[in-house]
């Protein structure tokens, strides 16, 4: 099985795009982008590690997410297409026609063994967690992410790929000795321009 360091090398052209570029080329109005809520807060608890001040240990509660998978597209195009699919689902392209609030964070799961595959997910708002409406677009699906223990590193907006991978490699070295799931590498974005984004690594 490939090491975490090798996996990061494989994705050196994907993670930056998933953190920063997906909204910059969209044509949606700024007003729409402002109508969002940090609904994840009800499903996530966190504490800062005493031994590693720059990294938080968080517990993500089991919850439903709307997701879509993109394979074989240019990475920038994949992020944009994925966002649009999920946005339309939240804004009424579902079996009940209900319009849901755009939520944060947007997750992008990078698949290290297949760098041209990205899974993009939006958190289903809490009011719909019990029974979310089914998507009309067959490329959008509902999934339940299980309880997860995460190591989380804050990222600064405007990082280039090399800088971001340096952060990821440094984070991995800090976590030496802790069991990580090598095929579960997430980025989480909380605002339009990537000024507030994070790298998530999942523990065994």
TrEMBL record:
GO molecular function, one term: heme binding
One Pfam family matching this protein: SOUL
Entry-linked Gene3D superfamilies: Regulatory factor, effector binding domain
Membership in a protein family: Belongs to the HEBP family.
PANTHER family registered for this protein in UniProt: HEME-BINDING PROTEIN 2-LIKE ISOFORM X2, HEME-BINDING PROTEIN-RELATED
Protein name: SOUL heme-binding protein
